Amino acid sequence: MKNKSFRPWLLLSPSLTAVFLLLVVPVCFVVVYSFWLRAPSGADIPAFQFGNYAKFFADFFYPGILLKTIRVALETVFFCLIMGYIPAYFFYKTESKFKPFLMILVMLPFWISFIIRTLSWINILGDSGMINHFFLQMGLIKEPFAMLYNEGAVIMGLLQYLLPFMILNIYVSLDGIDNSLTEAAKGLGCTEWQAFREVTLPLSLPGVSAGCLLVFVLTCGTYLPPMILGGPGDELIANLIFKRVIGTLDWPFGSAISTILMGLLAVIVYTYNKYMGISQIFNALSKE
Fold first, then answer.
1. Domain annotation covers residue 40
2. For 50-66, how does the pLDDT look when each residue is reduced to its tens digit (9 = 90+)?
3. How far apart are CA 159 and CA 96, in angstroms?
4. Within a domain: residue 41?
5. How far apart are CA 129 and CA 257, in angstroms?
6. Would residue 12 count as lying in a domain?
7. Could you write out the DSSP letters of every residue in the chain?
8. Could you read off the pLDDT of 72-128 as tens digits, one per residue?
9. What CATH number is attached to the domain comprising 117?
10. Residues whose CB falls within 8 Å of the CB of residue 275, separated by 6 or more in sequence, listed in order
């Protein structure tokens, strides 16, 4: 019996070792670095003090960027949900022979570099981009619209990056719904809309919840769309971390900001699990 109980852990040991070395250890290094001192000479001095955290909260500039990041993440989740549920539901209901091809189109952005996809928006939204060029040639405008280097362009870039994640999560949840349930609802007198509202929509909520959580976390951690498509006041918390770690080589303060972000996301995920039930989401998805 002891050997049998030990066998699953033996089989999991390669994966657990990889997770420990590639995830847990680097995160521990970041947390340890957050307590170090930054010397005037630029050297990092090992220490245990909370000066980096005090520096973050001493000025509202840094918490303001963090709050802005959460707001942009929530807006991105909202738009991804609205724009992602419809195509996911279409893939679930359609019996077209082109369904596999359409699914490939959804996954096609994953085959292209994220940097290239983000840079492509400059050729679309820029002053000499495709949209402004079309309107100028048609004589509808006299001067190009300013569509780049603002928060709207940043959210557009985030939607391009994250929308496939939302669509695929919702589709997986919808695809696991037994069609006989909706047919039974219709047989009991429900209209198509009532069957969707009472049966399909509630059963698809695990995929919706998983997609929303994934989009929110990824938005809080991305820095390319704000860096390429945003203006001076459109940076998010990941851009601040990038500038501190790569730009000024201030590892202690950059690590402190990273630790604060990780702690905030951990609280959000814990709260989400408490009221929404992440374990129930994963259980539902695993059964599909």
1. no
2. 999 999 999 889 999 99
3. 27
4. no
5. 36
6. no
7. -HHHHHHHHHHHHHHHHHHIIIIIHHHHHHHHHTTSEE-TTS-EE-----HHHHHHHHSTHHHHHHHHHHHHHHHHHHHHHHHHHHHHHHHHH---TTHHHHHHHHHGGGGS-HHHHHHHHHHHHSTTSHHHHHHHHHTS-SS----SSSHHHHHHHHHHHHHHHHHHHHHHHHHTS-HHHHHHHHHTT--HHHHIIIIIHHHHHHHHHHHHHHHHHHHHH--HHHHHH--TT---HHHHHHIIIIIS--HHHHHHHHHHHHHHHHHHHHHHHHHH-HHHHHHHHHH-
8. 999 999 999 999 999 999 999 888 888 888 888 888 888 888 889 999 999 998 888
9. 1.10.3720.10
10. none
Amino acid at residue number 146: A
**Is the backbone of residue 139 left (phi > 0), alpha (psi -120 to 50) or beta?**
left
